[in-house]
Every structure is written in structure tokens, then in C-alpha cells.
Design goal:
Belongs to the heat shock protein 90 family. By secondary structure, the chain is of the alpha+beta class. The protein has a single domain, classed as Histidine kinase-like ATPase, C-terminal domain (Heat Shock Protein 90). Helix content is 31%, strand content 26%. It contains 5 helices and 7 strands, in the order αββαααββββαβ. Strands 5-4-3-6-2-1-7 form a 7-stranded mixed β-sheet, with helices on one face. Strand 4 and strand 5 form a beta hairpin. The protein is globular, with a radius of gyration of 17 Å. It starts with a helix and ends with a strand.
Length: 170
């Protein structure tokens, strides 16, 4: 939305893309976009909610809503369920993000707690966000090229930006 109302939001790089890279050696999956990125405050406010909410509070609320016969779909925005689901396949999630109005920061969580620091590498993104998943041992199938291709085809058919997939060299 910001890119539609503020022409400067895409000033650093007007091309919008998504890049996915599987790194089997390091057991990591990297997803990078060239969107508007997030400030430190955005990372704390939006992603920090996940760590503040915690699994037990989420499960308690979900049980309470189901007992009352209500839909649990409204929990998604409150608890960051969509993003929180990354912890089903990852032991750790690292989000590096750079907004035009600020320095690049790193948000990191193991699902129990989170930290946000200024990125010691400096500005490597220009603008955008990289999500790195340190995969669980039982989820290494998500580092396979065919698995990623199938997931992208299945869930990204209505995305209007190019999606590039790279596999690590062996």
C-alpha cells in the first residue's frame, strides 16, 4: 500500500521480485523480496508479537475460541499465525530488513524469544527483506528444488512479481 501512496517508497530499486535460495550445506532456506522493507520499529511491532504471544497463549486462545464454537481464522492477525508457522519447519528464523528510511536490522527468534540488532554487515539489501529459515532436521525436504517449485506453483499463482529459485552449488 505504501508503494502506491508514496512514490519514494520504491526509490532504491523499482523492480519488485522474490528470490528463493536453498542452501543444503548450511541447512537454510532464504527468501528475499525487494519490497518496501521494515524499520527496526516495524520488526519489533510486527514480528515481536509472535514472541510476545508465545505458543501457550496462542493454544489457550485457540482452545477457548473452538470451545465457544467460533472461527479460529481471526487469530491469524492477532498472533502472527502465518509467520509463526515457520517454526513448524525451522528451529530459528532470521529476518534482515531495510526500509528506505533507516538502517538495516536483523530480527532473530527461536520461537521462545527474539532480538533485534542493527545489521553488522551494513546495507546489503538496498531495500527489502530476507527471511532465513534454519531448517529442522525433519524438514530438509523443503531444501529440495522440486519441493520448492511445487510449493511456488501451488501457492503463488496470483503473485504479480517474478519469483526466482536458486539452489546451492554442491
Amino acid at each position: 500500500m505504501m508503494s502506491l501512496t508514496n512514490e519514494d517508497a520504491l526509490a532504491a530499486n523499482e523492480e519488485l521480485t522474490i528470490k528463493i535460495k536453498m542452501d543444503k550445506e548450511k541447512n537454510m532456506l532464504h527468501i528475499t523480496d525487494t519490497g518496501i522493507g521494515m524499520t527496526k520499529e516495524d520488526l519489533v511491532k510486527n514480528l515481536g508479537t509472535i514472541a510476545k504471544s508465545g505458543t501457550s497463549e496462542f493454544l489457550n486462545k485457540m482452545t477457548e475460541i473452538e470451545t465457544e464454537g467460533q472461527s479460529t481464522s481471526e487469530l491469524i492477525g492477532q498472533f502472527g499465525v502465518g509467520f509463526y508457522s515457520t517454526f513448524l519447519v525451522a528451529d530459528k528464523v532470521i529476518v534482515s530488513s531495510k526500509h528506505n528510511n533507516g538502517t538495516q536490522h536483523i530480527w532473530e527468534s527461536d520461537s521462545n524469544e527474539f532480538s533485534v540488532i542493527e545489521d553488522p554487515r551494513g546495507d546489503t539489501l538496498g531495500r527489502g527483506t530476507t527471511i532465513t529459515l534454519v531448517m529442522k532436521e525433519e524438514a530438509t525436504d523443503y531444501l529440495e528444488l522440486e519441493t520448492i517449485k511445487n510449493l511456488v506453483k501451488k501457492y503463488s499463482q496470483f503473485i504479480n512479481f517474478p519469483i526466482y529459485i536458486w539452489a546451492s552449488k554442491v
